[in-house]
Specification:
9% helix, mainly beta, four-stranded antiparallel β-sheet, BAH_dom, 22 strands
Length: 370
């Protein structure tokens, strides 16, 4: 599946916790239909209400299956623009009258950025550090669903949070990438002054070998989480492979055997673990070329003349290191000249062996002496 960026709708959606701290928006763009013009007295009253609290509005999601029907249900709002249909959710805003009295906008400008409905944002949550550099990993992330304002000093955004794996049930797992996010239907209303800029987010289809891998600094998603109702991840399971039957972490390399009778994908970590186990058993084998699936880019680092290992495993008296031909590939790197495994014993003696497929035992390429 090709990469997709957050949508940029031309018109705002029709009407259907966290408390971040406060980078003021510099411009607003209106989008009809609007709330009725307020009288001077009503405007002053609404402004007073907004300034009495850092968080004047609250959002409560509603599960219609668990709620008794009443006349109040006619006031329920529905949100459907949440990545996948299963996240569509009913919700209520309190106080609804004050929220509906604010004018609606289709985008908001923060600093030099113009952020539209449907796009994703970074949300600042700590005002104690006055550092102009933005650490994207340290920011909250969300999708913009609705923008309303009384004036440029009182601008509010209804959002759906993009959670980190560690924020949800089960926590962060070995297959989760550093920049992996999980879209949810956890709704909130935040002050636009907490927005720290826009965020590019794309969907990665890990079931498709032709799907572009996430770049080293790119944020992506491949699962969703129904926070409001079922507390479950999306029904589509992550693709599992290799001998350990685990999903792929896009921060780590995997390999595919090119033997027509095999074609299986393997974790590099599993390959070096296998090598060091065989070394301890004294049964190192040789093996055929594999296709290497790498990230879209590799970080540039300062290296010693000897290329660093892509993966390493240690067991008993042996250490096994996995080197990939042409990697690392930064401008100051010394890339490996061949794909191979280097096995070191307790006395420091080294030998090389071909990388082998864990399933058919076909080799990668001839090793060179160390």
């Amino acid at each position: 599946m090709a990469r997709t960026k957050a949508a940029r709708p031309e018109q705002p959606q029709e009407e259907p916790n966290r408390t971040p701290s406060k980078v003021p928006p510099t411009a607003l763009m209106k989008s009809p239909p609007q709330a009725q013009e307020l009288s001077h007295e009503d405007r002053a009253s609404l402004k007073d209400f907004l300034e009495r609290s850092d968080k004047p509005f609250s959002v409560t999601t509603v599960n219609p299956k668990k709620r008794k029907r009443s006349a109040a249900d006619t006031a329920l709002r529905i949100e459907t623009d949440l990545f996948v249909p299963r996240l569509s959710v009913a919700y209520e805003i309190q106080p609804a009258t004050n929220w509906d009295s604010l004018k609606r906008y289709k985008r908001v400008a923060v600093g030099n950025e113009s952020i539209a409905l449907g796009e994703c944002i970074l949300v600042k949550h700590d005002m104690s550090q006055d550092d102009p550099r933005i650490d994207s990993l340290g920011q909250w992330k969300a999708k913009v669903l609705e923008v309303r304002a009384l004036d440029p000093e009182h601008v509010y955004i209804r959002v759906a949070w993009l959670n980190r794996p560690e924020d949800l049930a089960g926590g962060r797992q070995p297959h989760h990438g550093k920049n992996e996010l999980i879209p949810t239907n956890q709704l909130d209303i935040i002050d636009a002054m907490t927005v720290n800029g826009g965020l590019n987010l794309f969907e990665w289809d890990d079931s498709n070998d032709e799907s572009p891998m996430p770049g080293i600094d790119e944020y992506f998603w491949r699962q969703t989480y129904d926070y409001a109702n079922t507390k479950t991840f999306s029904a589509q399971k992550l693709r599992k492979f290799c001998r350990d039957r685990k999903p792929q972490n896009p921060d780590e390399m995997i390999l595919q055997c090119e033997s027509p009778k095999c074609r299986k994908w393997m974790h590099v970590d599993c390959i070096v673990k296998d090598a060091v186990q065989r070394a301890n058993r004294g049964t190192a084998r040789e093996g055929k070329a594999v296709k290497i699936k790498k990230r879209a880019s590799v970080a540039s680092v300062s290296l010693d003349p000897t290329p660093p290992a892509t993966a390493m495993a240690q067991e008993g008296a042996y250490t096994a290191e996995f080197l990939v031909r042409g990697s690392p590939n930064g401008p100051d790197d010394t890339p490996s000249e061949v794909t191979q495994i280097v096995v070191t014993d307790a006395e420091g003696e080294q030998r090389t062996e071909h990388v082998t497929c864990l399933f058919c035992r076909e080799p990668i390429e001839p090793a060179i002496s160390v």
